[in-house]
Amino acid sequence: MRSLIAPISSLLGGVAFLLLGHGLLNTLLTLRGIEEGYSTGLIGLLMSGYFAGFLVGTWLAPSLIRRIGHIRTFAFYAALASVVVLLHVLIVDPWVWLVLRVMYGVALVTLYMVIESWLNAQVSGEKRGQVFALYMAVNLGSLAAAQQLLSLDSPMNFTLFALAAILICAALMPITLTRQAQPAQPDMPATDLLQLARIAPLPLMAAGISGLTLGGFWGLAPVYASQSGFDASGVGLLMSITILGGAVLQWPIGLFSDKHDRRLVLLWVVAIAAVIGGLITPLTSGPLLLGMMFLWGGLAFSIYSIAVAQMVDQLHPDEILSGSSGLLLANGFGAAFGPVIAGGLMSFFGPKALPVFFAVTLAFLALYSYFRSRRVFDLVTEPHGHFTPMLRTSHTVLELMPDTPEGEIAEADTLDEGQQPLDEEEAVELRTGTHP
């Protein structure tokens, strides 16, 4: 383990500081917005600004990294993110905040991309799966731990904003001090959403609905918790419990999906999560609500990971990276709309509208999964892709996935003796279930 961690310790340290500051800021802004009297619809719009910036940054980041390199790009955007954090408390205006959230989203996805492309360059093929798991553990652990920092002071004071900026600045130190050589500049995988929709419609829909649902969670769960009777530390506890559920329960769900029909596993995970969303609706603050949110988080956070694994089952190996980029794009679009829709519903119907939003969106995905599962055929039948617990970060992290080693592409392209290759039309028909 020491030999695995040592070469990437500076990168892991950088992302830990970054996500401590990021996780604190996201919840802090929602609580500050409540204290300022912003409506839940307006708060949802502000939270959507971050995801919109995230999508824009996905396209802008590679060209800047190519021009000035990884370290200088990281330093530039970490400084920008820290400035943006402090501007939130210096200029308390919702429309200024909306612009700042877009800028912050651009900065965060670029910081993710720098770290993840560097990880890809530092790790050999046989260790990628271990590094991917370790990286995701650092991500989830930092986001959960960040919620506990909310109890240090009131959202109305300067302290927590300063702490978030300090933590993001601290991410600069291990990155800029590293002696590791900077990697080659990243390339953006080509993405064809229409083709992906033809070949793997179920994973694409699951990724989009996952973004819609979790976008609502990240943006409006602090509002829901606050209006349900939790104080600031209680809001942090609810957020931490849900994130920990996502970290802990993804592993058994993933192992189960590797051994059973993944389409049916996705159906049951989504259906149970929808039911739990409905059961949460009448609950108020208390241990039962926290326990239900733990279970819901474990199921909801698994949906995107199952979608990626199911996509791996359906695509040819050399299509996986571009297909994964498509799922990331669909997830990002869903996340951008989720807070707006959930916030609007909460403005009209109160805090109980959020778990109802969870239940309805996931119930829709369950119905879609039920009808699509009868028509989906796996192109890659042996071996299947493996479930890998993950968060939506940048497309660069997908290259760390253990199901996409470079060597497997050539191996998978080798035909058995006497086997004739499918032409492109036959391959698409087979993958969409229309091939005779």
Keywords:
disordered C terminus, 436 residues, mainly alpha, 0% strand
Instruction: Give the topology string: H per helix, E per strand.
Output: HHHHHHHHHHHHHHHHH
The helix fraction, in percent, is over 70%
What oligomeric state best describes the polypeptide chains here?
Answer: single chain
Number of helices: 17
**Poorly predicted segments:** 377-383, 405-436
Query: Strand count, sense and closure of the main sheet?
Result: none
Mean pLDDT: 80
> How many β-strand stretches?
0
Q: In whole angstroms, how far apart are the ends?
A: 49 Å
Structural class: mainly alpha
Morphology: globular
> What's the Cα radius of gyration?
21 Å
How much β-strand is present in the residues?
Answer: under 5%
Overall description:
By secondary structure, this protein is mainly alpha-helical. Helices cover 74% and strands 0% of the residues. The chain is built from 17 helices and no strands. Helix 10 runs antiparallel to helix 11, helix 10 packs antiparallel against helix 15 (353-372) and helix 13 (287-314) runs antiparallel to helix 14. It starts with a helix and ends with a helix.
Write the layout of secondary structure elements.
Elements: H1 2-5, H2 9-35, H3 40-68, H4 70-90, H5 94-122, H6 128-147, H7 159-170, H8 172-177, H9 193-199, H10 201-227, H11 232-259, H12 262-280, H13 287-314, H14 320-349, H15 353-372, H16 406-412, H17 424-432
Helix pairs in contact: 2-5, 2-6, 2-7, 2-10, 3-4, 3-5, 3-10, 3-14, 4-5, 4-7, 6-11, 9-10, 10-11, 10-13, 10-14, 10-15, 11-12, 11-13, 12-13, 12-15, 13-14
